[in-house]
Design goal:
901 residues, alpha+beta, 4 domains, 12-stranded mixed β-sheet, 7-stranded mixed β-sheet, 15% strand
């Protein structure tokens, strides 16, 4: 048979099967007509052989072998019998659920919360940790490179590398087909009033080869435009920027666009959705990394001191990650030796043990993931636990419904329905409920992602659930799992029901077994709720501990003013004068208390400078010392206390003797047991004059809110006269409302296209607390949700048990039991459930404490106060959930209760 004939037969078969499904009545009529036709022909044949009409018809039916059997065989030939069975089961389930809308709504709402929570979490976590960047070609062969080494016995891992190191690794590694350098930074795009700060990627020309993206206009820049040291002033703009800034005009290519200090020519427009390798913070334009380096890092191409860019590699086919790691480590060793040959005090590779780490392209999965990565994984687990609680709750409701339907089920079994068929029908019902819940859950997930993105991806482009196939596929999987988890127990229980006792209306045998199953499910809910609430309590206390850390400077009243010259060329004296004028102007703004010039910003920037002190062979071998410079009012502006001596004042001028202030930690490190005041520090070299220590300041957190950043020293900005100082403003209260006013007033002093940005110190500190805030927020939200679901589950079980014991309770009351005895009995039952769940959940939480502890700060994973508080909350919830059925039982009329079957 030819291929066209085979394809035609296939289409005909498909059409027939579809017709058998959607036009079943017509197909059945045709089948009846065909069966009658064959019977009539056989009857005619028998008549011609001499039989009378009645006998001929009888013989025809016997020879034919049964019309119904042939019909069933014909239906089987259609190949849609199973699908028809499923459709019938779905219709039957839909009728049953429509008859009980309250029950259906409760089940759908419960499951929707669990499905929605998991769908929303997956949409965010997938982008952070699993989803490859758009257009990335062969993602499995692409990796980021991290470099690690030891310094004074402590391991350090950097995701940022030097450009020269990048060249060394590219030239030496033999297991790679391609390498690329990239870095993103917020830069002003445009000029004049239309200038806006946006994220721009500085990339090597080889970067675009990692992707299958094709420009919608023009081209990507090539290796002739990415030549060190200066590169070319060209830019590839993103699709969104092309639409918003250029109105999607085809003449955008060739136009000039100022990117930072670079007046670049647009050579191409990237396709829609192409934002580079970092999904967490997409970029809007791409410039040559050599052009960016030349504009921002002096001598970037010739030294190993500017570690600022990231590196992508593509492994050769068949090369494993381990092989690439070994190859890159050898390349790093050669590069390390080349660097040390240029150093005055080299660090031998045998001592530093430099090695490369080949990581996934998603930075959160690599060694640079920091505290966020384990918390993200835990929160995924927490979302799954909420789904389990929701499934246990729904399974409990379905068990109760199955028991109420026991007589209906028994009748169907008596009429010949097999137990396998019955179980399949009940599972279909649970899957239908899960499907309805999935539709509602996707809507909840869409709304939930708005909240989660603010916690996890505050700077990423919005991607909803409804337009994301990966998230929809995951939600479908969750719906299937939820349907099976909720339906298996009720289906199996119904399939094992005793036919004789169930047919006797009013007899309650079997209820005890079902009640035990429901009790186990209830204990699962309670235990998991305790686990989540304990986690919430630990993270909330940990967040409080972190937020209570004294940083050594104030946060709320401070504004940081950064100066961006954007290519405006001023002499160093002119730049110093401009920054001095900014400080003077800022001090005149209403609401400003103090102003100071500074060199670095805590938690954002750090600098160091070589120094020596008499009596110590090498002070720098004692630790890493951070440098800060400040003007006269620096310590009072920042709120940093001087614990000995004094801070800088108006006498510390350029022509005055050099002075310095050190932190308490630095004083105790350099001069243990001695008074630091009056000590000598020589900055730069031993031939420099002494800078006398005039004060000791409290320790500050310079690089990490929980790290040990105690080694800090301060120099007078008037005596050092740097040309790149910034400004700190101290407001009388919260500084945030003052930010825009300060920006507008200071911008008036800026020459040409240069500009200032004003950032509240709160916006600098808050991201450092993000991991604890994420943990506390998500554990608390999911813990409350789990508690509500557990309370609903407890109520349903207690109410069910009260209904089952109506006659017993009526008899007790008739025999003289007081209402308070009934109340005590039922509340006691609910409390027993609650206490058992508390014990089991506490044991689970204690067992998991080993893994949770590294994510906490100043808080033990076994904090008894948290466990007691959670136990008290769940006990109160247990009593409250039991109170309604208990009050209903107290009001039972014995005469009515005793007549109840």
């Amino acid at each position: 048979m030819s291929a066209p004939d085979m394809f035609a037969d296939f289409l005909s078969d498909v059409r027939y099967r579809l017709r058998a499904i959607f036009h079943r009545a017509a197909v059945e009529r045709e089948l009846d007509h065909e069966m009658r036709y064959h019977l009539e022909r056989q009857t005619e044949k028998n008549t011609r052989q001499g039989l009378d009409a009645g006998e001929a018809a009888r013989r025809a039916r016997i020879e034919f072998g049964g019309v119904d059997r042939f019909k069933e065989d014909a239906r089987d030939v259609r190949g849609v019998r199973m699908l028809e069975t499923v459709i019938r089961d779905l219709r039957y389930a839909a009728r049953g659920l429509r008859a009980h809308p309250g029950f259906t709504l409760a089940v759908v709402a419960t499951l929707a919360l669990g499905i929605g929570a998991n769908t929303a979490m997956f949409g965010v976590v997938d982008r952070l940790m699993f989803r490859p960047p758009a257009y990335l070609r062969d993602p499995g062969s692409v990796n980021r490179i991290n470099l690690s080494y030891s310094f004074r016995g402590e391991p350090y891992t950097n995701s940022s590398i030097e450009y020269k190191r990048y060249l060394d690794l590219t030239q030496s590694a033999g297991t790679l087909t391609n390498t690329a350098a990239f870095y993103s930074d917020k830069m002003a795009i445009g000029s004049g009033e239309r200038a806006r700060e946006m994220r721009v990627a500085a990339v090597s020309a080889t970067y675009f080869a990692f992707f299958d993206a094709k420009p919608v206009l023009g081209r990507f820049f090539d290796s002739t435009e990415d030549v060190r040291p200066t590169g070319s002033a060209v830019v590839v703009i993103g699709y969104t920027l092309w639409k918003t800034r250029f109105g999607s005009r085809t003449d955008a290519v060739g136009q000039q666009l100022q990117i930072g200090s670079i007046n670049a020519t647009i050579v191409g427009v990237a396709p829609d959705g192409f934002v580079g390798a970092d999904l967490a913070e997409p970029v809007v334009a791409f410039i040559p990394i050599t052009a960016y380096g030349a504009a921002n890092f002096p001598d970037y191409a010739d030294n190993y001191h500017w570690g600022w860019m990231n590196m992508l590699v593509r492994r050769k086919p068949g090369v494993t990650i381990d092989a690439a790691t070994a190859d890159l480590t050898h390349a790093y060793l050669r590069s390390w030796d080349a660097e040390q040959a240029l150093e005055t005090h080299p660090s031998p590779s045998a001592q530093a043990r430099p090695h490369a780490i080949v990581s996934p392209i998603q930075s959160l999965r690599g060694p640079g993931g920091g505290r966020d990565a384990p918390i993200v994984f835990w929160i995924c687990g927490v979302a799954a636990i909420v789904l389990l609680i929701a499934c246990a709750n729904v399974a409990n409701l379905l068990l109760g419904r199955a028991f109420r339907r026991r007589r209906e089920i028994a009748v169907r079994l008596a009429l010949g329905v097999t137990r396998t068929r019955l179980i399949a029908q009940l599972l279909t019902e649970s899957l239908l409920l899960a499907l309805l819940a999935g539709a509602a859950g996707i809507i909840i997930g869409e709304l939930g992602q708005v909240v989660l993105r603010k916690l996890f991806l505050p700077k990423a482009a919005a991607v909803g659930v409804l337009n994301d196939p990966r998230t929809i596929l995951f939600a479908s999987f969750v719906v299937l799992v939820a349907g099976l988890l909720t339906g298996i127990a009720p289906a199996l229980q119904s399939g094992r029901s005793d036919l004789t006792s169930s047919l006797k209306l009013g007899v309650r045998e079997g209820g005890q077994q079902r009640s035990r199953t429901r009790s186990v499910l209830l204990l699962v809910q309670g235990a998991l709720s305790v686990f989540l609430l304990v986690g919430a309590g630990l993270f909330v206390r940990s967040l409080h501990n972190v937020a209570s850390i004294h940083l050594g400077y104030d946060v709320a009243p401070l504004l940081y003013v950064d100066v961006n010259m954007r290519g405006q060329h001023l002499s160093k004296d002119e730049e110093r004068l401009l920054r001095s004028r900014l400080a003077t102007e800022a001090s005149a703004i209403p609401g400003v208390e103090r102003v100071s010039l500074v060199l670095t910003v805590p938690l954002w920037q750090s600098r160091s400078e070589s120094f020596s002190t008499p009596g110590i062979d090498s002070a720098e071998r004692l630790g890493h010392f951070n440098l800060q410079m400040g003007s006269v009012d620096y310590f009072r502006t920042m709120g940093t206390r001087i614990v000995q001596g004094r801070g800088f004042d108006s006498t510390d001028r350029l022509e005055s003797p050099r002075v310095a202030v050190v932190s308490e930690g630095m004083a105790s490190k350099l001069w243990p047991g001695q008074i630091a005041l009056g000590k000598c520090l020589k900055f730069g070299s031993d031939t420099m004059p002494c800078s006398t220590v005039i004060g000791v300041a409290e320790n500050i957190k310079a690089n990490d809110v929980v790290g040990d950043d105690r080694l800090q020293y301060y120099r007078s900005i008037e005596q050092s006269a740097p040309s790149d100082a910034a400004v700190f403003i101290r407001a009388h209260g919260d500084a945030r409302p003052l930010a825009e006013t300060a920006r507008k007033q200071l911008q008036a002093l800026m020459p040409g296209s240069s500009y200032v940005t004003v950032t509240p110190m709160r916006d600098i500190v808050d991201p450092a607390l993000s991991s604890w805030r994420m943990g506390a927020t998500m554990f608390l939200l999911f813990g409350i949700l789990a508690l509500v679901l557990a309370a609903i589950g407890l109520y349903s079980v207690i109410a069910y048990n009260v209904a089952q014991r109506t006659q017993e309770l009526g008899l007790r009351i008739a025999l003289g039991a007081h209402a308070r005895d009934v109340l005590r009995m039922i509340l006691g039952e609910g409390l027993r459930f609650g206490l058992t769940g508390i014990v089991i959940g506490a044991l689970i939480a204690l067992g998991a404490g080993h893994w949770v502890q590294p994510m906490l700060y100043g808080e033990s994973a076994h904090d008894p106060l948290v466990y007691v508080a959670v136990a008290a909350v769940l006990a109160i919830v247990a009593v409250a959930a039991s109170a309604i059925p208990a009050l209903r039982a107290m009001r039972l009329d014995p005469s009515i209760a005793l007549r109840t079957e």
